[in-house]
Amino acid sequence: MSRLTIYRDNAPETALLDTENPREIAETLRPLNVRFERWQAPVTPAKDAPPEQILEAYRPYLDGLMGETGAGSADVVRFDRNTPQIAAMREKYLSEHTHSEDEVRFFVHGQGAFVLHVGDKVYSVLCVQGDLISVPEGTPHWFDAGLNPDVVALRVFTDTTGWIAEYTGDEIARRFPVTIPDIAA
Ligand SMILES: [Fe+2]
């Protein structure tokens, strides 16, 4: 289940809100300019489907989103625990950072948590299969897919030079451990 948990940034032990209702998640995140949507393809592509097939399955949603945001490119990323350098990758995403463009991800398979730090609040958004999230440019955040990741995701972007992060140097992510439910088969 998708899930949003909100904390004050100095109190990781007390949730101010904890919801698994996708509509409530979307409405709570909207004022932060965070887009959260559920996308449904007529047929969910297989985990090992070629990228073109995955892009095609979500084409109407992608076209709509790209038309609205002006983003020009989309691709498919996959990683699991056998991905080379996966531990180093995880560390990279786990430190609070920002980007100079929106970070837009759609979960075709698997799950991961985007944790946003806005003002004095922390918004932990657990995204699962069928969830789209867009983290606005300049918004401090981190990401975790857990110790046993198994993710196929779409990326939608304008800057084709790749994933570039500006680290804030804040160690806050260490104080907000993310729990990724174990759904490994
Ligand atoms: Fe990021």
TrEMBL record:
What is one Pfam family matched by this protein?
A: ARD
Q: Which major enzyme category is it?
A: oxidoreductase
Give the catalysed reaction(s), semicolon-separated: 1,2-dihydroxy-5-(methylsulfanyl)pent-1-en-3-one + O2 = 3-(methylsulfanyl)propanoate + CO + formate + 2 H(+); 1,2-dihydroxy-5-(methylsulfanyl)pent-1-en-3-one + O2 = 4-methylsulfanyl-2-oxobutanoate + formate + 2 H(+)
Q: Which UniProt keywords apply?
A: Amino-acid biosynthesis, Dioxygenase, Iron, Metal-binding, Methionine biosynthesis, Nickel, Oxidoreductase
UniProt-listed Gene3D superfamilies = Jelly Rolls
Record: residues binding Fe(2+) = H97, H99, E103, H141
Q: Which chain positions carry the site (Important to generate the dianion)?
A: R105
Q: In which pathway does it act?
A: Amino-acid biosynthesis; L-methionine biosynthesis via salvage pathway; L-methionine from S-methyl-5-thio-alpha-D-ribose 1-phosphate: step 5/6
EC code = 1.13.11.54, 1.13.11.53
Sorted alphabetically, which SUPFAM superfamilies does this protein's record hold?
A: RmlC-like cupins
Whether Metal-binding counts among this entry's keywords is yes
Provide the GO MF annotations for this entry: dioxygenase activity
* Site, May play a role in metal incorporation in vivo: residue positions: E96
Q: Where is this site: May play a role in transmitting local conformational changes?
A: D102
The positions annotated for binding Ni(2+) are: H97, H99, E103, H141
Q: Which cofactor does it need?
A: Fe(2+); Ni(2+)
| Cofactor info, note text | Binds 1 Fe(2+) cation per monomer.
Q: Which family does it belong to?
A: Belongs to the acireductone dioxygenase (ARD) family.
Q: What is this protein called?
A: Acireductone dioxygenase
From which lineage does this chain's organism come?
Answer: Bacteria, Pseudomonadati, Pseudomonadota, Alphaproteobacteria, Acetobacterales
